[in-house]
Protein: Leucyl aminopeptidase
Organism: Silicimonas algicola
Amino acid sequence: MSALTFAEAGRSARPLHLVRKDDAARWIETLDGPARAWVESVGFRGAAGEVVLMPGPDGAVAAAAGGLGDEKDRARKRFVAADLRGKLPEGDWSFESSLDGADLEEAALGWLLAGYVFDRFATASPPKARLVAPKGVDAARLERIAAGEALARDLINTPSSHMGPSELEAAARALAEEFGAKIEVIEGEALLEANFPMIHAVGRASPRAPRLIDMRWGDAGPALTLVGKGVCFDTGGLNLKPGTSMGLMKKDMGGAANVLGLARILMAEGAALRLRVLIPAVENAVSGESFRPGDILDSRKGLTVEINNTDAEGRLVLADALALADEETPDLIVSMATLTGAARVAVGPDLAPFYTDHDADAGLLERAAREVRDPVWRLPFWDAYEPMIEPGIADLDNAPSGGFAGSITAALFLRRFVTATPRYMHFDIFGWTPVSKPGRPKGGTGQAIRALHRALPELLG
């Protein structure tokens, strides 16, 4: 059985008492004499991640208690209950607690996410403890969310030697086949013929041909287009990155991974919408074919772009894909990209910065993010910075000098390519967990896909 699914309902399961720190003393008092003596003897106080195994009359483990910590612990860590899974022995368990609503859902989803391991290249075993889905949660929905998150993690964690543009295309094709979606791919020199000059320019230096992946699913309901940056490895191009900055560049297709993860959730639940997923998949390599600092590139939109840094390539490939998305004027366009270091400096790895011109949309997303514990933070499309992306000898500058407001100027650059569609939302994500946390092992991660999934019925309603 997959570690990302719940145990079968109706199976005999040992109780796992979820105990808040401020409620531990009261809970201990409810136990019978031997159990109370045992729990007190080991010093259990309900600290976050604390586990005590409770023996039955025969000496075998009959139950367990897991600490949820205090309010500050739960706010800082998220998925506190996920930390318990790997500390329990093999077998089926059931939650015993006063948790309900969003708190119960978070605990159950965290348990599933704690079952993720990346074992493609080395043996890794998921935790052996299993959970019977708690009453009051939609188990199938949580399993769909966990599967979408796992897809995003797998794609990001896969090294570029095994995840180039063609492999990213294969992953999209496998997803399309699973859910009956249609998919078209424009590759190599055909990109020029189809008028995607910036996708071609960024990817032409690599022997692994650039391409635009275009997947469609659903034929009724509001139209949603997801655009994900698929830079499968980023050397920086001729503005070569230093080695310390290049080590994590397998994750530079994290935007593509996240939109595919979100698409998987939406398709698996049969969402009533017309979904389109666009992924410009390239490798920003170095060769005699590399585009150069000082070049001026044409774009699908007709805007010209001066190249002042070849390491600001993600916005170039996204721009051509966004221009295509905008031609259909869907109800909502969402782009996701591991776009700027400036966003990481501003908000760190946990928060997903996002941009929108619509206050109501921002409010819906922020509320959804709080409900599902998937944090986002709104940054502004600050119109006063528009002149910073206008170099004078071309319509746009891909890397304004000065270093100020790097995430904002990148977002403003992208917005220039969405002119017909009334609603556009952009996410400048990190896509990586630097240090393992409950339910989020070190490595690739989904960001904002659960928040978007929760918010989309209202955003598109």
